[in-house]
Specification:
The complex is a heterodimer of chains A (about 120) and B (about 110). By secondary structure, chain A is an all-beta fold. Chain A contains no helices and 11 strands. Chain B has about 110 residues and is an all-beta fold. Classes of the chains: A mainly beta (about 120), B mainly beta (about 110). Chains A and B meet through strand 5 and strand 10 of A and strand 4, strand 5 and strand 10 of B.
Chain lengths: ~120, ~110
């Protein structure tokens, strides 16, 4: 059974930093691209960032480019999102999502974690 | 970025009704269109990829169609468990975008 479990959500002050993680099991992690998708309270889904199976290719939404960094540790079956210079508008539930393919090409999200809440507020 | 626009934004229908949700892309995306279902307080669930291919385990009352810029998700006979918000998503571009969602309720 595929499982994705996010952790690291917290209350953070504006301008602060936070790293969230997604531990996966039930599939060969290194064979699949992964993404982070967020959902602000009461709002729709917004793709944040994606990474290829080998970790070398990374992609970002314009709204987070230069502030967020996606990475993965294939030896530990874990996906990360390092978030710097956080803003109030980054407040959201952050989901990790598995894609169907090795590269972030035609990214179709076939499995999702339960999400972790990040609140940016003073 | 490719903009995805869903209509309607909300919909109320009776059990057994045929329900159709539309998704329009701001440029042609061939058939790189996927659909997700999200129930309140839950993570999204993957339903359909490549515009019309049903994910394994998804009830056959769900179907998708379309190509180019215009797509539809159809539920042939609405069931109580279908109450949810539905999102389309384009995977034509590596800069992924979702529609704003369609909230489906039972009348």
């Amino acid at each position: 059974e595929v499982q994705l479990v996010e952790s690291g959500g917290a209350l953070v002050q504006p301008g602060g930093s936070l790293r969230v993680s997604c531990a996966v099991s039930g599939f060969t992690f290194s064979s699949y691209a992964m993404s982070w998708v967020r959902q602000a309270p009461g709002k729709g889904l917004e793709w944040v960032s994606g990474i290829g199976g080998n970790g070398y290719s990374t992609y970002y939404a314009d709204s987070v480019k230069g502030r967020f960094t996606i990475s993965r540790d294939n030896s530990k079956n874990t996906l990360f999102l390092q978030m710097n210079s956080l803003r109030a508008e980054d407040t959201a539930v952050y989901y990790c999502a598995k894609t169907r393919d090795y590269q972030h090409v035609d990214p179709v999200f076939d499995n999702w974690g339960q999400g972790t809440l990040i609140t940016v507020s003073s | 970025d490719i903009q995805m626009t869903q209509s309607p934004s909300s919909l109320s229908a009776s059990m057994g009704d045929r329900v159709t949700i539309t998704c329009r892309a701001s440029q042609t995306i061939s058939n790189y269109l996927n659909w997700y279902q999200q129930k309140p307080g839950k993570a999204p669930k993957f339903l359909i990829y490549a515009a019309s291919i049903l994910e394994s385990g998804v009830p056959s009352r769900f179907s998708g169609s379309g190509s180019g810029t215009d797509f539809t998700l159809t539920i042939s006979s609405l069931q109580p468990e279908d109450v949810a918000t539905y999102y389309c998503q384009q995977s034509y571009s590596t800069s992924v975008t979702f529609g704003q969602g369609t909230r489906l309720e039972i009348k």
